[in-house]
């Protein structure tokens, strides 16, 4: 074979090999392309599966979030209290609410104290109150009872246990609340100015610069009297079982506190009288604040020259221009009294709950809870949940709550929890509408604050039997 033919033959073979390689490369490209598309589709489906699984996990996480801080406490024997349930759901981060419960043995039986402190502008005031409120009030009450015993030179056997008048107990609450607020807002000032230290000022005046409402209940097992003191817009409500003419069990509602805010006309009139011509209350608010009574909030209490001094040398805030004749806010509480009857229960909650539920709905829900706890076979829940008018309570004519309207949702309630406080929280945050509950709980600060507030709830169950063998008296009007 000549070299030319050999060269031609070689070139022809290379051409065939080149064509085969190009065809194989094309097939490989197509296979790679389809493999890539398949991988992408698989990835999308996997992500979708993860997303659906995550959504399921989020639904399951509703229970974890609602029950995260719940606690059921068995009360001391012979205290007149059977148990008390606590639960909390935060909106602020960190949460600003605090609580405190304490049962104190005394010669006549037990004193039980239950406190809720709804903080704002931070949690320093509420934390301070949780450490100081009950020790201060219990000590002042002990002094009152001691004075009553020592004032009678020859007490009879029936008089060895003092029974102070309501006005005396009321004064103890008012005096102690005022003293605590002074200890917070004014007592540290001398030390701050003597130190000439911004760090000391920040440390000692932190509770004064933040603020908090305070709701405190005091139950005396001997007299079976419950006293409730409030400064702010938290609320205490008592539920009492009654059988109607048809033999059905329903619950009466006794609201034991009055909201202190710019909507309460009594508070508006008080502030107008104290600050004539200043238009303190506008649009339902007090100089921009939602409440008219609180601990701390010293910007609304300190004199302007004092605030100027703190601003100049101690990192204080600029005085508000509308603050002309302080103080505007007060920590003085309103105090109420009721005699507890067998089977009563007390609901205490910060205002976040009452933005969602009426007092009647809350009592009806706890009444439903009690029935479910006492029925070992369970209860049959209506399809879609309980409407408000199905609750075992005499309902109010109007519903003034705002949150369900804001959410564009209808109230439907469920019974799934074994903690009464968690039961209230769940139904305040959507109830039977699990999608709404999941959405509300998924929100984080600051967005969550537009749709829900911190919620702290305490439910106290009193004994079913009257340990004194006496029938209870009707509550004071």
Describe the structure.
It is built from 12 helices and 15 strands. With 477 residues, the chain is α+β, with helices and mostly antiparallel strands. The chain has a single domain (62-462), classed as Phosphatase 2c, domain 1. Strands 3, 4, 5, 6, 7, 12 and 13 form a 7-stranded antiparallel sheet that branches. It has a 6-stranded antiparallel sheet with strand order 1-2-15-14-8-9. A hairpin with a 2-residue loop joins strand 3 and strand 4. Helix 2 (124-151) crosses helix 3, helix 4 runs antiparallel to helix 5 (198-209) and helix 9 (359-374) crosses helix 11.
Summarize the structure.
The protein is built from twelve helices and 15 strands. It is of the alpha+beta class and 477 residues long. It comes from Dichomitus squalens.
CATH architecture: 4-Layer Sandwich
Alpha-carbon Rg, integer: 32 Å
- Label the structural class: alpha+beta
What is the strand tally? 15
Uncertain ranges: 1-12, 46-54, 466-477
Order of helices and strands: HEEEEHHHHEEEEEHEEEHEEHHHHHE
The coarse overall form would be globular
Q: Count up the domains.
A: 1
The CATH class is identified as Alpha Beta
Architecture blueprint of SSEs:
Layout: H1 3-67, E1 71-74, E2 81-89, E3 97-106, E4 109-120, H2 124-151, H3 166-185, H4 189-195, H5 198-209, E5 211-212, E6 214-220, E7 225-231, E8 235-243, E9 249-255, H6 265-274, E10 281-282, E11 285-286, E12 295-296, H7 304-313, E13 334-339, E14 345-349, H8 351-354, H9 359-374, H10 403-407, H11 420-428, H12 434-442, E15 455-462
Antiparallel strand pairs: 1-2, 2-15, 3-4, 4-5, 4-6, 5-12, 6-7, 7-13, 8-9, 8-14, 10-11, 14-15
Helix pairs in contact: 1-12, 2-3, 2-5, 4-5, 9-11
């Amino acid at each position: 074979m000549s070299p030319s033919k050999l060269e031609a033959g070689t070139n022809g073979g290379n051409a065939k090999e080149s064509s085969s390689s190009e065809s194989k490369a094309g097939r490989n490209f197509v296979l790679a392309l389809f493999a890539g598309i398949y991988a992408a589709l698989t990835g999308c489906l996997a992500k979708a599966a993860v997303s659906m699984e995550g959504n399921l996990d989020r639904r399951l996480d509703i229970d974890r979030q609602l029950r995260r801080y719940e606690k059921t406490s068995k009360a001391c024997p012979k205290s007149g209290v059977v148990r008390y349930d606590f639960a909390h759901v935060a909106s602020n981060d960190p949460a600003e609410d605090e609580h405190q419960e304490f049962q104190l043995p005394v010669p006549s039986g037990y004193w039980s104290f239950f406190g809720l402190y709804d903080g704002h502008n931070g949690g320093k005031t509420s934390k301070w109150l949780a450490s100081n409120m009950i020790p201060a009030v219990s000590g002042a009450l002990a002094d009152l009872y001691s004075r009553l015993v020592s004032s009678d030179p020859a007490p009879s056997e029936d008089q060895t246990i003092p029974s102070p008048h309501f006005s005396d107990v009321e004064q103890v609450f008012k005096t102690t609340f005022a003293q605590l607020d002074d200890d917070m807002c004014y007592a540290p000032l001398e030390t701050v100015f003597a130190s000439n230290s911004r760090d000391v000022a920040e440390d000692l005046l932190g509770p004064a610069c933040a603020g908090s409402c305070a709701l405190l209940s005091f139950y005396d097992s001997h007299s079976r009297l419950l006293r409730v003191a409030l400064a702010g817009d938290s609320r205490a409500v008592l539920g009492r079982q009654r059988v109607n003419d048809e033999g059905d069990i329903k619950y009466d509602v006794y609201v034991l506190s009055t909201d202190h805010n710019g909507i309460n006309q009594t508070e508006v009139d008080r502030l107008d009288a104290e600050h004539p011509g200043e238009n303190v209350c506008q649009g339902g608010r007090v100089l921009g604040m939602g409440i008219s009574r609180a601990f701390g909030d010293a910007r609304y209490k300190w004199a302007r020259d004092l605030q100027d001094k703190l601003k100049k040398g101690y990192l204080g805030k600029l005085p508000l221009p509308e603050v002309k004749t302080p103080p505007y806010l007060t920590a003085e509480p309103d105090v109420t009294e009721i005699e507890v009857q067998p089977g009563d229960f007390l609901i205490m909650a910060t205002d976040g709950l009452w933005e969602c539920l009426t007092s009647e709905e809350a009592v009806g829900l706890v009444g439903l809870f009690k029935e479910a706890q006492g029925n070992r076979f369970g209860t049959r829940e209506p399809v879609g949940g309980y409407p408000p008018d199905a609750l075992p309570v005499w309902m109010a004519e109007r519903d003034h709550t705002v949150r369900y309207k804001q959410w564009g949702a209808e109230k439907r309630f469920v019974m799934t929890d074994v903690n009464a406080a968690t039961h209230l929280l769940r139904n305040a945050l959507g109830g039977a509408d699990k999608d709404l509950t999941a959405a509300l709980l998924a929100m984080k600060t600051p967005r969550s604050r537009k749709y829900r507030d911190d919620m702290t709830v305490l439910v106290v169950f009193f004994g079913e039997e009257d340990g004194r063998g006496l029938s209870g008296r009707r509550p004071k009007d």
